[in-house]
Design goal:
Oligomer: single chain
Strand content: 5-15%
CATH superfamily of the largest domain: Catalase core domain
Shape: globular
Distance between the termini: 97 Å
Number of domains: 3
Order of helices and strands: HHEEEEHHHEEEHHEEHEHHHHHH
Helix content: 25-40%
Bound molecules: protoporphyrin IX containing FE
Largest sheet: 10 strands, antiparallel
Radius of gyration: 27 Å
Length: 506
């Protein structure tokens, strides 16, 4: 009797195991599947038949499982949660999510490394991506930032070359300091970013322990059309924690996917990570009152001159249920904006406004905004239609009218959402570097703000990588940049790389 009961239980469990959710397996076209283990053959030992439609569909689906990885930031992980505003900022912006203290907005984030492939270690010295998509009632709004507040370059024209120099060599398929320092020795404005990236900030202990920044300034527009320039910062409530070079090496030997694992675990355990969102504001008439150009992405906005105002808190409380659909397929863009936020004139940002949507049409297809993770709360209302994977063709009261203007029916426009007007006096169309480059001052200030141990680690990390460069003239050029930032910094780097004063006199 006992044996019969046990057999029944085992049968029930195994049956439940096979028929997940008590559903019968079906093909993509909905037909029930009789056998998912054995191919259809000509006789027991004969060849497999092409008419086994289920087998062909299964192999074809598998063959197409991978999509192109992101051209930069391929390695990353994501989570969802919400943003709660703590201050009413409607005097400065119409952006609905910042309009009322206590207002909550759903969001999804993706944190990433930049340079190496989708399966690469999370212990690399690399900026970390910090991208947030807010699902507001006026459409999606993305802040696509990094963990560091500045960037290597100020003009989108240089981006593809910079990435080529940092990616593995097209000859050896290996990342090579000879290549990226060759590039950076011609980019003095990168000194500020390099100085930060080669401190321990370049290897965060985990994504929940890093801060974030929009890097660029954006324009906030209020209900009267008044413009305020803003820069965003995320401040981690877990405390900023990084790895030294040695700790990163040890971590890599134990588990090089630690950042993905630990974020997921914290959320699973209910230790929901949180960040406060701060904003800095500059009035348009004050833009020219600094010794740097605030819309130059190689510059930070100093906190002692431009106050940081806390405007809300982000909480991450949900892990992805399906990584491909919620993380691999998420598509951020600095151009995904809502009424109340517009791009600034920052030259690097202007290039990004084109690049993200363009790459996503290639990576995910022209209808990437229809994917569940990317679609806005309210369905779009416009006449864009068709192409690959379109399932969102809009149904209008008169579906035959898919154009505008029409004498029969029109989708309404609303004047209040017109873009702001900007008047530029005496504008000359030009193609040249900005005059106020101030390439070294902030790098020097940052160096002097570090404590002794942080400075020692910077010198060790940076001379470790720059020391691998075989062309001495590249090393010297880089050292002159560090020297111009701060004398002590330059001297210590020269010493660490075995240069004497005479070497620079030659
Ligand atoms: C002209 C300069 C830049 C260009 C052309 C550029 C281009 C790109 C491209 C093509 C992607 C892949 C997007 C995708 O496949 O979905 C990407 C990802 C990303 N970029 Fe940039 N980028 C630039 C500068 C920056 C800067 C300055 C930041 C930080 C403020 C940044 C942050 C990010 C982040 C966080 C991602 C990953 C987004 C995600 O998680 O899906 N990028 N970038």
């Amino acid at each position: 009797m006992k044996k019969i009961v046990l057999t029944a239980i085992i049968f029930a469990i195994s049956f439940a195991g096979f028929a997940q959710n008590n559903k019968v397996m079906k093909t993509n076209s909905g037909a029930p599947v009789g056998d998912n283990q054995n191919s259809k053959t000509a006789g027991e030992y004969g060849p497999v038949l092409l008419e086994d439609i289920h087998l062909i569909e299964k192999l074809a689906a598998f063959d197409r499982e991978r999509i192109p990885e992101r051209v930069v930031h391929p390695r990353g992980t994501g989570a969802s949660g919400y943003f709660e505003a703590t201050k009413d900022m409607s005097a400065y912006t119409k952006a609905v999510l910042f309009s009322k203290a206590g207002m909550k907005t759903d969001l999804a984030v993706r944190f990433s490394t930049v340079i190496h492939g989708k399966g690469s270690p999370e212990t690399a010295r690399d900026p970390r991506g910090f991208a947030v998509k807010f699902y507001t009632e006026q459409g999606n709004y993305d802040i696509v930032g990094n963990n560091l507040p500045v960037f290597f370059i100020r003009d989108a024209m240089k981006f593809p070359d910079m990435v080529h120099s940092l990616k593995p060599s097209p000859v050896t398929n290996k990342q090579d300091p000879n290549r990226y320092f060759d590039f950076f020795s011609n980019i003095p404005e990168a000194t500020n970013m390099i100085t930060r990236l080669w401190t321990d900030l370049g290897i965060p202990k985990g994504y929940q322990y890093m801060n974030g920044s929009s890097v660029h300034g954006f324009k906030w527009i209020n209900a009267e059309g008044k413009v305020t320039y803003v820069k965003y910062s995320w401040v981690t409530k877990q405390g900023e924690k990084n790895l030294t070079g040695e700790e990163a090496m040890k971590q890599q030997g134990m588990d090089w996917q630690h950042a993905t694992v630990s974020l997921r675990k914290d959320i699973e355990d209910g230790n929901f990570p949180q960040w406060d969102l701060y904003v800095q504001m500059i009035q348009p008439e004050d833009l020219h009152s600094f010794d740097f150009w605030p819309l130059d992405a190689t510059k930070d906005w100093p906190e002692d001159k431009i106050e940081k105002v806390k405007i809300g808190t982000m909480t991450l409380n949900q892990n992805p249920v399906n990584f491909f659909e919620q993380v691999e397929s998420i598509a951020f863009s600095p151009g995904t904006l809502i009424p109340g936020v517009e791009p600034s004139e920052d030259k690097l940002l202007q290039g990004r406004l084109f690049s993200y949507f363009d790459t996503q049409r290639h990576r995910l297809g022209p209808n990437f905004q229809q994917l569940e993770i990317n679609k806005p709360n309210e369905p779009p209302v416009n006449y864009n239609s068709d192409s690959w994977s379109s399932y969102g063709n809009k149904r209008f009261t008169n579906p035959d009218v898919n154009y505008q203007p029409s004498n029969k029916v029109n989708v309404a426009e609303d004047e209040q959402y017109k873009q702001s007007e900007t008047t530029y006096e005496n504008v000359t169309i030009t193609q040249k570097k900005i005059t106020k480059t101030n390439d070294f001052a902030q790098a020097g200030e940052f160096y002097r703000s570090l404590n002794k141990e942080e400075q020692d680690n910077l010198i060790k990390n940076l001379s470790g990588d720059l020391g691998q460069v075989t062309d001495k003239s590249i090393q010297m050029k880089m050292i002159t940049y560090f020297y111009r930032a701060d004398m002590d910094y330059g001297m210590r780097m020269a010493e660490a790389l075995d240069f004497s004063r005479e070497d620079f006199m030659k």
